[in-house]
C-alpha cells in the first residue's frame, strides 16, 4: 500500500487506482474500501508536497556492494541541496523516527555527491477499522470516511545522527564475523522462504545430497 501511495503521489490518483485494480482478478468490498483510502490521502499528500518544493525525484535508487535502498522522495532546493523524505503508511511514528534508515540515506547520498539539508518522514495514517455486526456497507463506509477525516498527515523532521550510521557498520561487521546462526523468530518469519523448514524441528530436511 505504501508503494501505491508513492505511485499515486508521483503519477496521479487515477493511475494509482487503475494499477491497484489491475492487481486483482475481481474487486470486492474490501478493495473498494482500500480505494477510498487512496482517494482520500493521495490528493492531500500531493497538496502537502506543493508546500515543500517544486522539483522532486521519486524512488531514487542507492545501490552499492554493501547497501541497497530506495529514497522515496528528494526535494531539490534552490541552493543546490536536497531534502530527503520517506513516506510511511503507518501509525508507528516512534519506531521509524528512531530507525537508521533515513540517516543511511543521507550518508550514501552524500557519497554520491548530493548535499542533504533536511531529513524527514511523511506519515500517512493507517485506518484499520472493521465493519461492526450492526453495520451495513453504507454505514461502515460513512464511518470510514469520518475516520479518515479525523486523521492527520504528519511530517516529522529528523536530525541527522552519525552514530546511527556507525552502528549500522558495526552490525554489518558483527554479522560478517559471526559463525553461529541462531534462530531469531519474529513476525518477519511470515515472509521467510525457509519458514517451513526452519519451524519443522528437523522433520523437513531440504539438504541436497552431493552426487
Ligand atoms: S523462519 Fe526464517 S526468519 Fe524466522 S527464524 Fe526461521 S530462518 Fe529466521
Structure at a glance:
This protein starts with a helix and ends in a 13-residue tail after the last helix. Helix 2 (13-22) packs antiparallel against helix 3. The chain has eight helices and five strands, in the order αααβββααβαβαα.
Search tags:
globular; binds iron/sulfur cluster; five-stranded mixed β-sheet; Lambda Exonuclease, Chain A; 211 residues; 5 strands; 8 helices; single chain; alpha+beta
Strand tally is 5
- The proportion of residues forming helix, as a percent range, comes to 40-55%
SS content category: alpha+beta
**Adjacency order of strands in the biggest sheet:** 1-2-3-4-5
How is the quaternary structure best described? single chain
Strand content: 15-25%
How does this model look, in words?
- By secondary structure, the chain is of the alpha+beta class.
- It has a single domain (2-198), classed as Lambda Exonuclease, Chain A (Alpha-Beta Complex).
- 44% of the residues lie in helices and 18% in strands.
- It has helices at 2-11, 13-22, 29-50, 93-97, 101-111, 137-150, 162-177, 195-198, and strands at 56-63, 68-76, 82-89, 116-124, 154-158.
- The protein has a five-stranded mixed β-sheet with strand order 1-2-3-4-5, with helices on both faces.
- Strand 2 (68-76) and strand 3 (82-89) form a beta hairpin.
- The longest helix has 22 residues, at 29-50.
- It is globular and about 60 Å long.
- The model has no long low-confidence stretch (mean pLDDT 92).
- The structure holds iron/sulfur cluster.
- Iron/sulfur cluster is lined by residues 183-185, 188-189, 192, 194-195, 198-199.
Amino acid at each position: 500500500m505504501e508503494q501505491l501511495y508513492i505511485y499515486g503521489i508521483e503519477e496521479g490518483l487515477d493511475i494509482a487506482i487503475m494499477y491497484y485494480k489491475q492487481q486483482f482478478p475481481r474487486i470486492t468490498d474490501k478493495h473498494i474500501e482500500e480505494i477510498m483510502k487512496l482517494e482520500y490521502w493521495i490528493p492531500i499528500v500531493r497538496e502537502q508536497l506543493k508546500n515543500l518544493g517544486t522539483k522532486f525525484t521519486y524512488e531514487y535508487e542507492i545501490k552499492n556492494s554493501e547497501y541497497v535502498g530506495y529514497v522515496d522522495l528528494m526535494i531539490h532546493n534552490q541552493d543546490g541541496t536536497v531534502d530527503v523524505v520517506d513516506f510511511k503508511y503507518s501509525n508507528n511514528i516512534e519506531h521509524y523516527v528512531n530507525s537508521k534508515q533515513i540517516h543511511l540515506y543521507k550518508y550514501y547520498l552524500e557519497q554520491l555527491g548530493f548535499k542533504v539539508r533536511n531529513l524527514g518522514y511523511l506519515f500517512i495514517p493507517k485506518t484499520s477499522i472493521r465493519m461492526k455486526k450492526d453495520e451495513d456497507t453504507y454505514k461502515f463506509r460513512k464511518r470510514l470516511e469520518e475516520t479518515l477525516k479525523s486523521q492527520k498527515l504528519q511530517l516529522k523532521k529528523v536530525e541527522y545522527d552519525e552514530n546511527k550510521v556507525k552502528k549500522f557498520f558495526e552490525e554489518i561487521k558483527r554479522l560478517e564475523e559471526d559463525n553461529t546462526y541462531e534462530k531469531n523468530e519474529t513476525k518477519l518469519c511470515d515472509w521467510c522462504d525457509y519458514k517451513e523448514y526452519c519451524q519443522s524441528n528437523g522433520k523437513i530436511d531440504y539438504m541436497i545430497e552431493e552426487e
